[in-house]
Amino acid sequence: MGLPRWVRKVMKGTIVDAFHQSWYESKTTWxxxxxxxxxxxxxxxxxxxxxxLIFKQKPxxxxxxxxxxxxxxxxxxxxxxxxxxxxxxxxxxxxxELRPETKGISHPRIRMIxxxxxxxxxxxxxxxxxxxxxxxxxxxxxxSERHVRAELEVYHDLVQVGAYLVVEDTNVHxxxxxxxxxxxxxxxxxxxxxxHPEFEGDDAMWERNFFSFHQRGWLKRIR
Length: 223
Ligand SMILES: C[S@@+](CC[C@H](N)C(=O)[O-])C[C@H]1O[C@@H](n2cnc3c(N)ncnc32)[C@H](O)[C@@H]1O
Prior knowledge:
Blueprint: H1 5-25, E1 34-35, E2 38-39, H2 44-57, E3 61-65, H3 71-82, E4 90-95, H4 100-103, E5 110-114, H5 120-129, E6 136-139, H6 145-155, E7 164-167, H7 185-195, E8 199-201, H8 203-207, E9 218-221
Parallel strand pairs: 3-4, 3-6, 4-5, 6-7
Antiparallel strand pairs: 1-2, 7-9, 8-9
The chain binds S-adenosylmethionine.
């Protein structure tokens, strides 16, 4: 006879949280990962989810705020290449300070803008680069609640019905990592969802694999 269901549920929660914390705190996991040689600050479980989402959605463009070394931009652009997306499917990255190695990335789909993701001129430039059609928005810049909430207001209308907006790193501020961070992406997501019933969290997506750095941050526009 196996363990009672409630014991297994508690054990699963404890194991998932412990894995989450030890993975986040390790200096050799997400801080050391690369994609095709480019540092990429993502958990492989999330890269799997992006791969599924991009294959299923075939986004007309991808916008990411917070680029760092550009590994995610190269990852997204490579996936678009693999699924045979049209050349018009661009990957646009915004970072407040583009690193020299990031500026050196050359891929026909990738465009980069330097500046704050909520600066009016930067937003205008980004919107000018994105073509028509349903895209994918990924927020991974300043993780303070205030900034993420502002980004959500600025970019949510780009997301068409059925398309996704991903708020990254909802795990900080004790969910369950980096307790001292202060209110961040998860708090911004919760207040956004209260104000925008046209979006809902697609929790089944990440719960299937138990674990995502962006848990409760995979938002789908439903109307
Ligand atoms: C977590 S890193 C991004 C990691 C990257 N998305 C990846 O997957 O490898 C956060 C980035 O956000 C940038 N950043 C911080 N504040 C910003 C802002 N206000 N606007 C745009 N980018 C910002 C930082 O310079 C940093 O490169």
